[in-house]
Amino acid sequence: MARWSEYDTDEERLPEGMQRIGYDADTQVYTFRDAEGGIWESAPGNRYGQLRRVANDTLPSYSEADDGNPTQPLTYGGPGGSSPRASWRQEMMPLLNWFLLVGLFLLFMICDDATPHKIKAGETCWAIADARSVSLDALLKANEGLNCDRLSVGETICVPTA
Predict the structure, then answer these.
(1) CA 42/CA 32 separation, integer angstroms
(2) Backbone angles phi, psi at 82, to 5 degrees
(3) Number of H helices, E strands in the chain
(4) Of 34, 91, 139, 157, which is least packed with CB atoms within 10 Å of its CB?
(5) How confident is the prediction for the chain on average, in pLDDT?
(6) Is residue 76 helix, strand or coil?
């Protein structure tokens, strides 16, 4: 079974030269090594986000734009919080989640113990119930919140089986 996180690789999320080297399942802390050999850890339960230095053997290199503070938390874009442009997969992930929720909602909107019926022009609740030999009350009970005065052409309703 595929995981959605496969679309977010370390190369896309971590600063250049940084690589994940370990994970402690007890504390849920990820360990990373930067290009100069320094060791960094994530916050418990977070794979990315702010990283803190745990081994001070070597200091990371800084450009003139940085303030040169090696104890400053490192965010995924490097010191100073600048992050590289997110990939299109990362930008579209919220939409994917939204479409997944809509799909599940529509899946559960299927009629239970009833037949779906698409409204045609000129149809009324009474005519649909009469054509299917079902009482109007049973039709209204199967479609909670149905307003018979405002049926829309193309709308699908559930018609209970007789």
Answers:
(1) 8
(2) -75, 135
(3) 4, 6
(4) 91
(5) 77
(6) coil
Distance CA(69)–CA(79), nearest Å, equals: 9
Q: Which domains does the chain have, with CATH numbers?
A: 1-108 (no CATH), 114-160 (3.10.350.10)
Residue 86 to residue 94: CA distance in whole angstroms: 13
Strands (E), 1-160: 19-24, 29-33, 39-42, 51-55, 114-118, 156-160
Please give the distance of CA 132 from its chain centroid, rounded to a whole number: 42
> Across the chain, where does the E strand assignment appear?
19-24, 29-33, 39-42, 51-55, 114-118, 156-160
The string of pLDDT tens digits covering residues 25-81 is 888 898 988 888 889 898 888 877 788 888 755 544 545 455 555 555 555 544 444
Q: What angle do CA 66, 56, 29 make, to 5 degrees?
A: 95
Asked if 24 and 9 touch (Cβ cutoff 8 Å), the reply is no
What's the predicted TM-score (pTM) here? Answer: 0.35
